[in-house]
Amino acid sequence: MTNEEILKKAIKKAIKNGYSQWTPNYINEVIKGIWPKETIIFSRDFAKSFWGYKRVFCVSSYGCLENEDDDNDDPKYDGKAEYDLSLSRRIEAWKYHLQEMVILNDKERINYLEEFL
After folding, report:
1. pLDDT computed for residue 113 by the predictor
2. What is the pLDDT of residues 61-77, one digit of tens each?
3. Can you spell out the DSSP letters for 54-98?
4. What is d(CA 7, CA 13) in angstroms, rounded to the nearest whole number?
5. Model-level pTM?
6. Could you give the CA distance from residue 104 to residue 65 in angstroms, rounded to a whole number?
7. What share of the chain is helix, strand, coil (3-state, %, to 5)?
8. Residue 13 has what pLDDT?
9. Helices vs strands, H then E, count in the chain
10. Are the C-beta atoms of 79 and 57 separated by less than 8 Å?
11. 40 pLDDT exceeds 80?
C-alpha cells in the first residue's frame, strides 16, 4: 500500500469510530499532501477514534501489551511487573500509541498506522 492509501484507510477507520474534528475538504487536502499529515495523526481526537480507550498493560523497559494474557506467551517478559507495581502500569491504548508515534520518523509513522488497519 502507498502512504496515501494507508493514510486514507487510517482516517476512514477513525471516522467510522467517531472522528469528526476536521472537514472532509481539509482531510482530502492532508491526504494529497497540501497540509501536513501530522495535524491529523497527532490529534488526540484522531488517536482516540483510531486506537480507542481500551487500557493496555505496560511494563517498564518492555512495552505494552494489548491483551494482558499475551505476556504469558512472550519469552522476553519475565513476569516481575505482576508483583512490582513500580514496574507496570495500565494506560489507555490511544495514549500509548500516540506516544509511540511521536518518537518515530515520518516513514515509520505511516508503517505504524498500517499495523492497526
Report:
1. 95
2. 555 556 544 444 444 44
3. -EEEEETTTEEESSGGGGGG-TT--SGGGT-GGGEEEEEHHHHHH
4. 10
5. 0.71
6. 19
7. 55, 10, 35
8. 95
9. 6, 3
10. no
11. yes
